[in-house]
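We both want to read discrete structure tokens more fluently, so let's practise on a single case. Would you supply a protein for us yourself, any chain you care to pick? Would you write everything just below, so we can both look at the same thing?
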Amino acid sequence: MQSANITNHRLLLTALLIGSAMNRLTQLGEAQYIALETYKKNGQAVPTPVWVTQEAGKLYVITEGNSGKVKRIRNNSQVRVAKSDMRGKVEGDWSAATAQVLTDAAAVAQQGKRLAAKYGLIYRLFHIYLTMTQRKRTSVVIEIA
């Protein structure tokens, strides 16, 4: 009987921790900017301010496929995220998470829709500017859970 109680308590604690982590990510998804901290092969942390959206308890970031953060995530999927300003100055507590790179066109298109819904005209103007001034870009989405 006591063993069953311990198991139930562990399951409840695990559910609370998972729920708490999802809640933190959902709150970060409401921020205008977050700092996304990735790690070099030597372990050195590299924080980068990014626009972010959230859906179903996960965060999403769009970036160029050959960016440094993508290369670092492919090498080490462990990241940290925190609310920040546009320059990357952290304005809240860091949360540990796991990131993966999504390369399919559907994921990129979906993230474009989420960004347009959240950032509106600013995103649309930025997207037009990038389209006009840059050669062919290969965008990817970073999914953070």
Remarks:
- The chain has one domain: 2-144.
- The longest helix spans residues 2-29.
- The radius of gyration is 17 Å.
- The beta strands are 33-39, 45-51, 53-55, 58-64, 78-84, 95-102, 139-144.
